[in-house]
Every structure is written in structure tokens, then in C-alpha cells.
Design a protein that fits this description.
single chain; alpha/beta; 2 domains; six-stranded parallel β-sheet; globular
């Protein structure tokens, strides 16, 4: 599969989703909320069309308390696979039959595939994030990384950062009822690369947060802070910690440039938006759906 099948150039309306929609058309979907802004339907339907795959991809707005009903519908309707976004990534786990190693360790899923009579959950966000960095000429190996976020995507990215050979990872999150769980997860992923120093801090300590950013090679926003419509929000309250040797990556892709990225760019930092991560994790999900590899 060529790179341009999952490139922004492919995000366009097409005359037909597939050669013909009939009783044999396979159905794939996205669940979560909100999904009205998602580029996934265009991305996958264009890939299906180019590959001649008899399938269609739709987006369904599903809240946390609707997951059980949604999965029942997936089973009943014979949906072949789906992507999962906020707020369903962690809540969906009890309703699946099997999990990949990454999904089990992260405690979250972003891709579900019908395998036999069961549904298996996968997590492709970490791989997608790392591949997006590499596509922009940014390697994680031997770098100090400061990351904000501890949700499903955040954990997947944390794990991938450690696997990619970072020398240090400073994780910031709100000190709420899940803080201890994040500390436990940090200890678990430390076993993947004991040479990586991993620390977990309270995001409320902005002074410490800014100090860590000043000492870092890479800053990652792995939260939805800055996503439309709240585009003026940022994980950083002050911009003074930016420096020219810092790369700033944001997993938010709507808007293309968040306030965090805009301020970082203005201060001379290299910035990497979230759309590339969407494409890269989508390539991996497409492989899981169809067996067709991008590379």
C-alpha cells in the first residue's frame, strides 16, 4: 500500500465509496464522541475504494453509557472492525473477547477486529505516534521526553517512548483518583527498558512542569487539551520554557495547529501536529482490518 493512500491528499469526497453497496458490503466504523469532525470515514473509504475492497466505513456518536449496547449491535450486525476514540477507549475492554499485549498493558483499545466469532481489541496509538515522529525526522532514542496525559492514547505513547529507547520520561497528570494507577503503569513499562528513568508528577505543579520542559528534547501533549472548540486552551500556562532545541508534538489534529504548537513554533521550536499520528495509526488499523500492509 502506498503512503499516499493515507495522506492528507486522500481526504476528499469520492464519487463512490466502493464499486457497489449491497447485501455483501462489509461494514467498518468509528465509535466515540464527538466524531462529527473525524477524518476517519474519508480516510478509510478512500483506501477501500483504491484497493477495490467491498466495504464501507461510518462514524457513530457513542457515549460511555452506550458502549454495551453498541457492542451488542456490532456483534448482531456483523460489523467487521471498528476504531475507538474518546471516551470509549478504556470503557470498552470488558465487552471484548480478547486483547493484544499492548491493549492489555495500556488498559485501552483504539481498534477492534472481528476474529472468528469474537472481538479482539488492539492499541495502535503508540506505534502511530512514533512513526509520525520519524516521518518528521525526529527520533526518540536517547532523548529526554516530557509528556502530559495518562488516558488510553497517553499510556500507549508512554509505552512506545520507552520501547523506542528514550533515556528519560517525565509524565505529568492531574493528581486525582487515577494518579496511583499511572504510577503503577510507569513501574510496569520501566521493565521494558530499565535504562529509561521514568517519573510521574502532578500537573498542577506548573513550575516543575516548565522546568522539566526546559530540560527536555521532546514535549508531548497526549491529552485532548486544545481540541476544537476549546482551541485557546493549552497544557502550558506559560510559554517561557520553550527553547530552539525542543520538539513539541501534539496528538490533537483538530485544529491542525493547536495553541500549544502555535506558541512553540513562534518560539523557534520544531512542531509536529496530530494528523500524521492519525494517519500512521490508521495504516496499522487498516492492516489489522484487511491484512494489507502499508509498507
Amino acid at each position: 500500500m502506498k503512503e499516499d493512500h493515507f495522506s492528507p491528499k486522500s481526504f476528499k469526497q469520492t464519487d463512490r465509496l466502493c464499486t457497489e453497496i449491497d447485501g455483501k458490503t462489509a461494514l467498518y466504523c468509528l465509535i466515540g464522541s464527538p466524531v462529527g469532525h473525524s477524518a476517519s470515514p474519508q480516510m478509510y473509504n478512500e483506501a477501500f475504494r483504491r484497493w477495490g475492497i467491498h466495504a464501507v466505513y461510518l462514524a457513530f456518536d457513542i457515549q460511555e453509557d452506550q458502549i454495551a449496547e453498541a457492542i451488542s449491535a456490532v456483534r448482531l450486525l456483523g460489523i467487521q472492525g471498528m476504531n475507538v476514540t474518546m471516551p470509549c477507549k478504556t470503557k470498552i475492554l470488558p465487552y471484548l473477547d480478547d486483547l493484544s499485549m499492548e491493549a492489555r498493558l495500556c488498559g485501552a483499545v483504539n481498534t477492534v477486529v472481528k476474529e472468528g466469532k469474537g472481538l479482539k481489541g488492539y492499541m495502535t496509538d503508540g506505534v502511530g505516534f512514533a512513526k509520525n515522529l520519524l516521518a518528521h525526522g525526529c527520533s526518540i532514542r536517547d532523548k529526554k521526553v516530557t509528556l502530559c496525559g495518562s488516558g488510553g492514547a497517553g499510556r500507549a505513547i508512554q509505552m512506545q517512548i520507552v520501547k523506542e529507547g528514550a533515556r528519560a520520561l517525565s509524565i505529568f497528570k492531574r493528581k486525582n483518583h487515577t494518579f496511583a494507577a499511572q504510577e503503577k503503569f510507569a513501574a510496569q513499562i520501566h521493565s521494558l527498558a530499565s535504562s529509561c528513568r521514568i517519573q510521574v508528577f502532578d500537573l498542577a505543579d506548573q513550575e516543575l512542569f516548565q522546568k522539566e520542559v526546559k530540560d527536555s528534547d521532546l514535549l508531548v501533549n497526549a491529552t485532548n487539551v486544545g481540541m476544537a472548540p476549546k482551541v485557546e486552551e493549552s497544557i502550558l500556562l506559560e510559554d517561557a520554557c520553550f527553547h530552539k532545541d525542543l520538539t513539541v508534538a501534539d496528538i490533537v489534529y483538530h485544529p491542525d495547529e493547536t495553541r500549544l504548537l502555535r506558541k512553540a513554533r513562534e518560539e523557534g521550536c520544531k512542531v509536529i501536529g496530530g494528523r500524521g499520528m492519525l494517519l500512521k495509526q490508521g495504516e496499522e488499523a487498516f492492516r489489522l482490518f484487511t491484512g494489507l500492509s502499508v509498507t
